[in-house]
Write a structure and sequence with these properties.
Elements: H1 4-15, E1 20-21, E2 37-44, E3 47-53, E4 59-65, E5 69-74, E6 80-85, E7 91-96, E8 102-107, E9 112-120, E10 126-133, E11 139-145, E12 151-156, E13 163-168, E14 174-178, E15 183-184, E16 187-188, E17 197-201, E18 207-211, E19 218-225, E20 231-237, E21 248-251, E22 258-259, H2 264-268, E23 277-279, E24 283-288, E25 293-298, E26 304-309, E27 313-319, E28 322-327, E29 331-335, E30 342-345, E31 350-356
Amino acid sequence: MVTDQNRRSLLKAALFGACAPVMPLGCASQPASKPALIGCAIKGRDKFSAVIADRNGQAIKQLPLPGRGHGVAVHPKLTQATAFARRPGTFLMVFDYQSGEMIQLRPADDQRHYYGHGVYSNGGEWLYVTEGERGTSRGIIGVYDVAHQYQKVAEFSGFGIGPHEVIVMPDDRLVIGVGGVHTNGREPLNLDSMQPSLTYLTPNGTILEQVALPDHHLSIRHLAHDGSDTVLCGQQYRGKPEDYPSLLAMHTQGGALKPLLAEPEQWARFNHYIASIAANEQWILATSPRGSCYGIWSKQTGELVELAALPDASGVVAYGDEFQVSSGSALVINHRYPERAVQHVSNVQWDNHWSPIA
């Protein structure tokens, strides 16, 4: 339920939602750099923002958020993007990434909360958002009509509880990382009976396929695809603290989930959690802010080829054969494997995920 305090926070953010350039530029000034990345950031104690950055991860504009953000969806045609509150989230914010102006700040519906992720349809008509029913964690994909002020027009459900990330495939199928965890706030309540899955839906919400890993304590959460038919899913392990199973898997619809390979002591470095994932033709990169590291796997063999330390490793995007990784320590890594990674300092304390602007 959206409380009066939540609504006051949203109104305050709306009143101060104009663009906040990092350099001493007015909102009407044109930045020298072209917007290329969007992510959420921490600006200080209880201060959060959505950040529009250039190709090197340097901020161009920042928009205040009423709470901590998580993922960002970028429209495929319009200069619009949507930032989502960290779960259990009470808001989503739509903004223009060229002008830096907020378009809409929308509170979650009564008895609903946001899980922190969403994605636009390939044609840009719809915004699909992972949501949950308060009190039960029943999983919902909220469908919002972009052309009509992001009105909610449908809800898809019936696929399980605790959905986290949703992505859209090139052929318009939706894929959901269903975590399977019932929570009260952020407290898990059903670890013994959780049922995570990787779920495929038609654009109209019909379930096409659901697959799961053998260990039901592997909560499927973050997703990516390789530009074709392969889906990558990253897990959060909710089992015994001393166990270190594979936290990353590949899947093509109709087949089995294939865990990627690393030694238990290498998986231990990820501290039971995979955050952002990106892939190109040869390599897969996944980050772990809890483990302050990232790993690179061979897409062909499924084997870990590099494990690197990065404090609070968070977002990742792929530009051809080069990966770019963000961190909460304001470092940005450019890595064209097997070449040596190049590190530089950003002007942003990045938080959670990055989304590229096409």
